[in-house]
């Protein structure tokens, strides 16, 4: 049985010879097809369909009546159109370039502000280092005297409990 006989037998609409393998694929319905050729040609065509994700089901090979020819019926999955994929996943939102430039400018401004604050803080500490040192020494002396006197001066320690 040739490919044209197979097409007539099943009432097929189209048939195509695969240029890569030489097998003939006859479209039977929207999702079914018959592939005829040598076992190697049919196997290569099935492999190509499997690699592209279009192969759903395969029947056992049947002899066609011609020497070395087999017939396989397959269920073929149709690739989904791009519109259906876009509707399923939702539209991709495109961010306008001015938004990226505005966000980048804001980020640079924030970083510049933080750097300015660090510079001002360091400059203030350098300008007032003597006053800070005197204040820390005074605080240490007061804490040392309060610990010896046994009187709580408002600094909470684990032992006094404000008695």
Q: What distinguishing features does this structure have?
A:
17% strand, 5 helices, 163 residues, six-stranded antiparallel β-sheet, 2 domains, alpha+beta
SSE string, helix = H, strand = E?
HEEEHEEEHHH
Tell me the β content. 15-25%
Major sheet description:
6 strands, antiparallel
Outline type:
rod-shaped
- List the total number of helices: 5
Assembly annotation = single chain
Low-confidence stretches: none
What can you tell me about this protein's structure?
The protein is of the alpha+beta class. The protein has helices at 3-10, 39-51, 82-89, 97-127, 129-149; strands at residues 14-17, 24-27, 32-37, 55-58, 62-63, 70-76. It folds into two domains: 3-82; 98-149. Helix content is 50%, strand content 17%. The longest helix is centred in the last third of the chain and has 31 residues, at 97-127. It is rod-shaped and about 110 Å long. 13% of the residues are buried. The model has no long low-confidence stretch (mean pLDDT 78).
Give a topology summary.
Blueprint: H1 3-10, E1 14-17, E2 24-27, E3 32-37, H2 39-51, E4 55-58, E5 62-63, E6 70-76, H3 82-89, H4 97-127, H5 129-149
Antiparallel strand pairs: 1-2, 2-3, 3-6, 4-6, 5-6
């Amino acid at each position: 049985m040739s490919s044209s006989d197979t097409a007539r037998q099943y009432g097929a609409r189209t048939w195509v010879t695969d240029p890569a393998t030489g097998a003939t694929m006859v479209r039977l319905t929207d999702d079914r097809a018959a592939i005829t050729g040598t076992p190697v040609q049919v196997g290569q065509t099935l492999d190509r369909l499997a690699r592209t994700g279009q192969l759903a089901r395969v029947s056992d090979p049947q002899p066609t009546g011609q020497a070395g020819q087999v017939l396989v019926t397959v269920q073929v999955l149709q690739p989904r159109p791009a519109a259906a994929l876009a509707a399923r996943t939702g539209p991709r939102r495109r961010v306008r370039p001015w938004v990226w430039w505005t966000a980048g400018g804001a980020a640079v401004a924030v970083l510049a502000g933080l750097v300015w604050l660090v510079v001002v803080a360091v400059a203030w500490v350098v300008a007032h280092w003597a006053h800070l040192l005197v204040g820390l020494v005074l605080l240490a002396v007061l804490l040392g005297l309060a610990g010896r006197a046994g009187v709580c001066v408002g600094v909470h320690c684990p032992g006094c409990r404000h008695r």
